[in-house]
Amino acid sequence: MSSSKTDVSRVFSSEDGEDVASVPYCYLDENEVFQEPLDLYRPGHLHPVIIKDIVRPDPVSSASRHKDAPRGYRILHKLGAGGEATVWLAQELDNLNRAVSLKIYSAQYPSAAEREARVLKTCMASPDTPGSHNIISLLDDFTISGPNGTHKVHVTEVVTPLLSCNIPDSWKREVVRDLARGLAHVHRRGFVHGDIHIGNVGCAMPSPFYERDIGVTMRMLFLYDVTMIIPCDPAEDSSSLPAYLLSPCCLSVAYERHGGSKARQAAKLYDFGNARRVGEEYSTDDVRWRCPPPEAAFAYYGCGGLDVLPTMASDVWALGVLIFGLFTGESIMNGTTLGCLADQAKLDGTIPPAWREYWDTDASLRDQSDQVTPENADTEWSRRRDRFIQKNPNIEVAEVDLLISLLRWMLKADPDARPTADEVLAHPWFAYGSQSGC
């Protein structure tokens, strides 16, 4: 394989009509390229996609789509990728200036796609409910077939990852409020998100992104970072592979240039592939903990390797971790090691009742019991408070103190002691500095 760069504006130029394969390349150092592993492209896994591909629904899935749904979508650039799916910037064939996001699921994960579609459709069924606009909008969904199998496709609005957005201190509280509203809406509709972390939230694109000619946006995205795929054996069947791997575009450039930093955009939750409906039976086989809560570590060690399903309480804990990272740029301790279990108890200041029996029988934990005290927890949070103040000099100390009190509640080691999403929204921190709290 070899790495190369291609000028976006040339690929989409109406004057020369050049295809991506005919544009000159310049080679990059391999370490500069950020792409998914090639071995994910095989039967039963990811669908091969390249720029300018037309993605159309299979005839069977077309029957269930709404009558005004586009005939298909043209791939413009990559937004992201993982083992579960690839995500693409695309344009509607029936409205070439309409930009959308296409999430093409791996053939291995149809259940994740079905869960996500179910949650989004349910949440969109009540568009006037507070928090409904803080969840990514599902515009279309269908299936396609390819050399690697049958793939679910979700078409959504385009959202810029929060990590890429330049969020000033004065906007952070409102971003958190948006995310808490979105989570509360999901919970009220009877679902658990199950995978909240800083990489699964973002900001809506500014309105000029949709109002201007799409060529303007494509010129903002500059270059394609490409790794060509050349089989060692020319006779080898390479239909499962794309012609090249593509690095994600820097969508934040378009976000900024369309005015994202001039006016605050709504923050949104996305990636609901790990979502579950409360009260229904599910297997834990496909649960993915990007941000495992303390109860996941306890289940592993204290319950003989038992896996646990996400809950509303684990969603709240994960949102607390996200908030901590947003304000400090650091990760609060999380994981499923025995050491993390002890650290969570120390940060809380108490050993949850459900942990006590196991804690007392494990020598390494039992030896740390005298360190798990409210006084030691206060000292640890005082240190973290200093970091908040240092990292956010424009936020008043009194506001930081309120935020710390909220986080200590959300990050309780005992899930039964955590607030609900609605209780999070009612916390005095959100009303600081205003009489209405709005």
UniProtKB/TrEMBL annotation:
Gene3D superfamilies reported in the protein's UniProt record: Phosphorylase Kinase, domain 1, Transferase(Phosphotransferase) domain 1
Keyword Cell membrane (UniProt): no
Ranges where the Protein kinase domain occurs: 73-430
Domain of life (superkingdom): Eukaryota
Keyword ATP-binding: yes
Sample GO molecular function, one term: ATP binding
Name of a matching Pfam family: Pkinase
Cross-referenced InterPro entries: Kinase-like_dom_sf, MAPK, Prot_kinase_dom
Keywords: ATP-binding, Kinase, Nucleotide-binding, Serine/threonine-protein kinase, Transferase
Name of the featured protein: Kinase-like protein
Organism listed in the record: Lentinus brumalis
